[in-house]
């Protein structure tokens, strides 16, 4: 019946047979394009999912320390370092400086492990007065250099308002500033960070 319809309309059967591969090729091309677009959309979705998973992993396992200076008495203070991350760290250097000074006034070397979620404390003793002197009113800052996962990091500078009169502490209060995560100490970091790294390596070489 179909052949009779083609014959009545003057369409040779051989022509129909010749066009079948062309029609098949066109259909295959259209199907390939549809599948390719679907594959690209799936790949984009997968990449976004992996990026989100990587970001969440880095947030949970990246090192993050919080530093606090506390006044115990007019002559005594202590430093409190809290590990806010899950990863354990090895504390190496405590640095104190006055904001009107370009370099830290004090560097104390440590070798203290600090597990994630835990706190390490230590009395500063005369270290605070080494930084401020017997009379000072202004801001000081504290920073920690530490190892985590085999890499050397340094926290941001945590600032405090301090007032010292005649060798006695009158006021010591933290200043609320935007916190940032610890940064890796590398060759392309600022010179002060590189100095901290060099000193840690020198300490290990002399041990």
Can you walk me through this structure?
- With 207 residues, this protein is an alpha+beta fold.
- The protein has two domains: 2-60; 63-206, Immunoglobulins (Immunoglobulin-like).
- 38% of the residues lie in helices and 35% in strands.
- The chain is built from four helices and ten strands.
- The protein has helices at residues 2-8, 13-61, 127-132, 191-206; strands spanning 65-71, 77-83, 89-98, 106-114, 119-123, 136-148, 151-154, 158-165, 168-174, 183-184.
- Strands 3, 4, 6, 7, 8, 9 and 10 form a seven-stranded antiparallel β-sheet that branches. A three-stranded antiparallel β-sheet has the order 1-2-5, with no helix packed on it.
- The longest helix has 49 residues, at 13-61.
How are helices and strands ordered from N to C? HHEEEEEHEEEEEH
Residue runs with pLDDT of under 50 for 5 or more positions: 187-204
Q: Using DSSP, what is the number of strands?
A: 10
Count of domains: 2
Tell me the distance between the termini.
Answer: 99 Å
What Rg do the Cα atoms give? Answer: 34 Å
Strand content: 25-35%
The CATH topology of the largest domain corresponds to Immunoglobulin-like
Number of helices: 4
Structural class: alpha+beta
Mean pLDDT: 78
CATH level 1 class label of the largest domain = Mainly Beta
Query: What's the CATH architecture name of the largest domain?
Result: Sandwich
Percent helix, as a range, is 25-40%
Shape by Cα distribution: rod-shaped
The CATH homologous superfamily of the largest domain is termed: Immunoglobulins
How many strands, what sense, and barrel or not for the largest sheet?
Answer: 7 strands, antiparallel
